[in-house]
User: Which sequence fits this backbone?
DNA sequence: CTGTTAGCGCATTCAC
DNA sequence: GTGAATGCGCTAACAG
């Protein structure tokens, strides 16, 4: 049923090697033979067997994406799909296929990665998250497989990664609120075991300190990347004796919860509480009021991750001089949720 | 560097065939040999080469997902990611890998599918959309490759597919509005070349007719699966001499645009215009007001698609008696956007 | 320029 | 029960 090189060769009256040479665009081949073989391949509907090719070339022309397991519902959907789009687009352009993998537990995740890399099904991997003390990173680094991390590792400084400068992004977001005249600014954070939560919190702290503003621990709450987290935080914040007039929120989705919470408590945004969050998902401009957000270029993050991974794979050699950590620039999109100066200015 | 069966065999003092037999759980093998070999495999860190395995077994244990090319921004993100999650989860459980593919144009898409299937890199494919007259479907059907369509084909009745009963779903949504006392009901549709748009429109029409309600062509607008479509539709609808009091909207995302449009025109939902839409994305309950929506079980759609594809692949034989079209049940989630009866009831 | 040979790592015949 | 041989489809040396 399947048409092989051998079949084509027989039909064309040449040797299999010749056909193979035509396929790979070998230089030392007569133009006429090449043309003839190509026509016959077309006629017979020849398609190279990718597996056989990989087996002998010891390279698969494909990479894999490791989806994190947890139930980060909303966050995952919007954020990861955009990331995946970037990765798949770039990989396609470079002639690479993308394999998606996930595991129910961290152990399963590791098994999947191990099977894929050690079984030589893929040439490299992209990790879409950065937890504290991640076993998958340890494995990949130890075994020396090409991989890139979207995010930052707290353990290793010398691994390939693509990231937002989250510290600076949070600094910028906070500074914006300060420049609007806010002095009491709170922070709604994400899960403390994610590096991104910690980096953003740190940036917020730095901005507050640099501007000589008070930093109250009760103005900082931790939660998930879920709207519920923002929702719950509100009943807490608004009952504080000295409540903040503005909030930096770790993710747009959480902001949606914040908005809902405030509306139920009959507070209005931005008059009672101004808001800036992160990621600038498309829906943040559709909420009432539209949310100010730091755009981190998610698609670009994915696109770049794929690019540097494939470069690394093709280079073989790990040149020690290369940049390991790639930063995608962010920018603040100011919308209605932060357009208010307290103190009646 | 790589450990092969041969290496293990040499170290264990047995033949490669024996090791292979242990690997595949062959029955005629002495318990002791089996144990010994397994230990050595563990010690040496043996991992089967997936490519070599596929080459000889003529099966890859992987399937591919074809992402549609267009820029269906929001729709894609939320909807497809959920679908993918369902597919990947089920495939993993069945021991299958999932490959994601897309093309910039329909031609590229076809090339990718062809390369993957004909090149024997995957055993089957899942199509995530259903356009009118899709060339990819023609190809897959003609060549006899296992595939399943998430959606419905207008051309073939006998292909494997997983779908919502969109006609009935729209009928239900419309009936709900009618039962609330609405008589002038409009419909905001999606791209007319997508089957889903047409099915939902048809269900709306049927419900209107069955209830003896007038069906005005100016109450129906077509657009994209984007919030802009809903936004634009509003300035049109609300300027109609006899404007509808309720709307069935083809997708939640479009409803977001509708809400924004109405709020800018100073109309309120549901008092001035009641709303029901489809897909029940997580954010539909977060908007103000929360949107009534038909939940179509997106994750389930993906999960089922993967399941029947893999079943088909493993069965080899296409038993003619089997069900080709699988319907995932939907249900209406009533929220504030439709909780209003016109005429002051 | 072209043909011959020898594997890539594995599974599946056969023999014994 | 186990070992030896053969081939999956292809590429990469070798020779000419």
Assistant:
């Amino acid at each position: 049923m399947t048409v092989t090189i051998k079949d084509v060769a027989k039909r064309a009256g040449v040797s299999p090697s010749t056909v193979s040479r035509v396929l790979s665009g070998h230089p030392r081949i007569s133009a006429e033979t090449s043309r003839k073989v190509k026509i016959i391949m077309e006629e017979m509907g020849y398609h190279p067997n990718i597996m056989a090719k990989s087996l002998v070339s010891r390279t698969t022309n494909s990479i894999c994406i490791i989806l994190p397991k947890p139930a980060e519902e909303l966050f995952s959907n919007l954020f990861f799909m955009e990331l995946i789009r970037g990765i798949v687009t770039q990989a396609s352009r470079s002639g690479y296929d993308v394999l998606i993998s996930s595991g129910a537990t961290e152990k399963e995740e590791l098994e999947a990665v191990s099977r894929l890399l050690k079984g030589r099904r893929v040439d490299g991997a992209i990790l879409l998250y950065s937890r504290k003390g991640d076993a998958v990173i340890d494995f990949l680094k130890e075994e020396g497989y090409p991989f890139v991390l979207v995010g930052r590792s707290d353990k290793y400084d010398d691994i390939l990664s693509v990231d937002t400068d989250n510290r600076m992004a949070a600094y910028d977001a906070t500074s914006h609120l300060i420049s609007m005249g806010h002095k009491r600014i709170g922070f709604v954070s994400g899960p403390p075991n994610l590096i991104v939560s910690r980096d953003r919190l740190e940036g917020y702290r730095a901005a507050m300190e640099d501007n000589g503003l008070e930093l109250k621990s009760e103005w900082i709450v931790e939660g998930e990347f879920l709207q519920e987290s923002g929702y719950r935080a509100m009943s807490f914040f608004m009952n504080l004796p000295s409540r903040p007039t503005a909030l930096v929120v770790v993710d747009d989705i959480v902001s949606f919860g914040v908005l809902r919470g405030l509306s139920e408590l009959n507070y209005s945004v931005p008059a009672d509480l101004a808001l800036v969050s992160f990621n600038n998902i498309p829906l943040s401009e559709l909420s009432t009021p539209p949310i100010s957000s730091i755009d981190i270029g998610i698609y670009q993050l994915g696109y770049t991750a794929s690019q540097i991974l494939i470069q690394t794979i093709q280079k073989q050699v790990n040149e020690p001089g290369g940049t390991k950590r790639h930063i995608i620039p962010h920018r603040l999109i100011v919308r209605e949720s932060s357009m208010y100066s307290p103190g009646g200015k």
User: Anything to note?
Assistant: The domain at 165-294+330-336 of chain B is CATH 3.40.50.2300 (Rossmann fold).
